[in-house]
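for the recovery benchmark. tokens below, seq after
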């Protein structure tokens, strides 16, 4: 029993929960400070607030849809944890939950175009990509050729909705 728990823990990068909690906190602090001190939000003067609110709403809505579809694919149906899940939204993109999280950041970037936050977002994307790379190596070792075939068929980040 204990080996199962250890195996589960190895599926994610070390301290990934702390990283995933710390990144949005850091982003919000930087975002709010930039709004207060107006350090890098000059582009807001050239793009209407209405357009920024519309873009924010659309991207946030898409992010929440992706996260809901990801949750449904992963946690509905009482599948065993040692099953490779490739249906639902996971047949279009390999990391819909992480993509949804990243889209929430993008939504806030649209709401107020903070160049400092854009730079921090690039770092956030690199961190998430590193976490995904680690998790995919674990999945390759668990599922072998089945996962390699899935990787060839389904994109890592940008959803593909065409049927082949």
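predicted aa per position
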């Amino acid at each position: 029993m204990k080996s199962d728990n250890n195996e589960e823990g190895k599926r994610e990068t070390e301290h990934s929960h702390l990283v995933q909690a710390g990144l949005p906190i850091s982003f919000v602090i930087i975002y709010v400070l930039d709004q207060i001190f107006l350090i890098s939000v000059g582009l807001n003067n050239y793009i209407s607030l209405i357009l920024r609110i519309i873009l924010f709403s659309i991207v946030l809505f898409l992010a929440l849809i992706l996260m809901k579809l990801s949750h449904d694919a992963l946690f509905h149906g009482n599948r065993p944890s040692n099953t490779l899940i490739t249906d639902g939204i996971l047949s279009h993109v390999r990391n819909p939950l992480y993509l949804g999280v990243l889209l929430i950041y993008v939504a806030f970037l649209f709401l107020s175009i903070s160049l400092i936050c854009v730079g921090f977002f690039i770092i956030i994307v690199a961190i998430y990509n590193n976490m995904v790379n680690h998790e995919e190596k674990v999945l390759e070792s668990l599922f072998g050729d089945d996962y390699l075939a899935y990787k060839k068929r389904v994109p890592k980040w940008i959803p593909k909705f065409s049927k082949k």
